[in-house]
Design a protein that fits this description.
- It is a single chain.
- It is built from 10 helices and 10 strands.
- By secondary structure, it is an alpha/beta fold.
- Strand 3, helix 5 and strand 4 form a beta-alpha-beta unit.
- Helix 8 runs parallel beside helix 9.
- The longest helix is centred in the C-terminal third of the chain and has 25 residues.
Length: 298
């Protein structure tokens, strides 16, 4: 298999540009963005020079007048934030009925999201999991680290195995310490069960946690097609021939119950979550989600 065969169909530069433009439109500048990862108040830590990315409302005009230059207040949380991305790269993510597979959609989203953090000199780490931990990277800043993250995400050989989110959360809890600001979990959560609730609760109590659920339309409903199709269980490899029109009601009942289980887990753990499907652009939805987080903290 050649290198081109292993690469996913992703436009990382385009995703970054679109999200950056949308955040500016929503007035989510750098300093405001950092507040969204903080449940407590910010601790004043001195002053720094004003930059074009700062909000003019943050300028301390009295201090600027005394110093003869435009300056803004600096807070301790503006330095060395540590954000962990816990990303599902199981076989279940290599699936799609839209122009983007779930793994391609996830790659563009995590790349655009993490780029914001790297661009503000924060540190990101990542844990990629399927049936085992595929990759783990400690926290680093800079675009060399960002490029390694995105290179792994867009490499088809990274993916495989039955998604085991419970194992991944256990691993995350074992390896992260209290210096970590937040954990962002990206998955379709199709393997979640009641045991996941206990683990997510522990995770969200220890770190600020954001869950992003990415699903394909076929994860929710079968197409209205009156002909037989072959489907395979990615966990057992068992294959079965079905007629979507006949199985549609039963399938939708199951997917609704599984989806509700996951939503109840998020609500019981009192964590913010974003639901996305691959037939809709994530950019606007993510910007709205972040804006709402900001409003809740004001």
């Amino acid at each position: 298999m050649g290198d081109n065969d292993r690469k996913l169909n992703v436009d990382i530069a385009g995703a970054i540009a679109k999200l950056d433009a949308m955040l500016k439109e929503f007035n989510l500048k750098q300093d405001i963005f950092k507040i969204m990862f903080r449940g407590k108040g910010l601790e004043f830590d001195g002053y720094r020079d004003f930059s074009p990315d700062d909000d003019a409302q943050d300028i301390d005009w009295k201090a600027s007048s005394r110093g003869g230059r435009t300056i803004v207040k600096r807070y301790k949380e503006e330095r060395d934030l540590k954000i962990m991305f816990l990303v599902d790269v199981g076989d279940n993510m290599v699936f799609g009925s839209t122009p983007k597979l779930k793994c391609e959609y996830s790659t563009e989203l995590t790349a655009a999201f993490s780029h914001i953090l790297v661009n503000t000199n924060d540190k990101i780490g990542f844990i990629l999991f399927g049936d085992e931990i595929k990759e783990y990277s400690n926290f680093k800043s800079g675009f060399k680290h960002f490029n390694r993250f995105t290179d792994l995400m867009k490499d088809g050989t990274t993916y495989g195995g039955t998604s085991n989110i419970n194992m991944a959360i256990d691993y995350t809890m074992d390896y992260l310490d209290s210096s970590v600001m937040a954990v962002i979990v990206v998955s379709d959560f199709l393997s979640a069960n009641e045991e996941t609730s206990k683990r997510m609760n522990l995770l969200s109590n220890r770190f600020e946690t954001i869950a992003i659920r990415i699903r394909d339309p076929l994860d929710l409903s079968l197409p209205d097609v009156d002909e037989e199709i072959l489907i395979e269980d990615i966990r057992t490899k068992e294959q079965v021939l079905i007629n979507p029109r006949v199985a549609k009601a039963t399938y939708e009942k199951y997917t609704f119950q599984q989806g509700l289980l996951v939503e109840n887990i998020f609500k019981r753990c009192d964590l913010d979550y974003l639901d996305l499907t691959t037939d809709k652009d994530f950019v606007v939805e993510l910007a709205i989600f972040l804006k709402e987080r900001l409003l809740k903290r004001q």
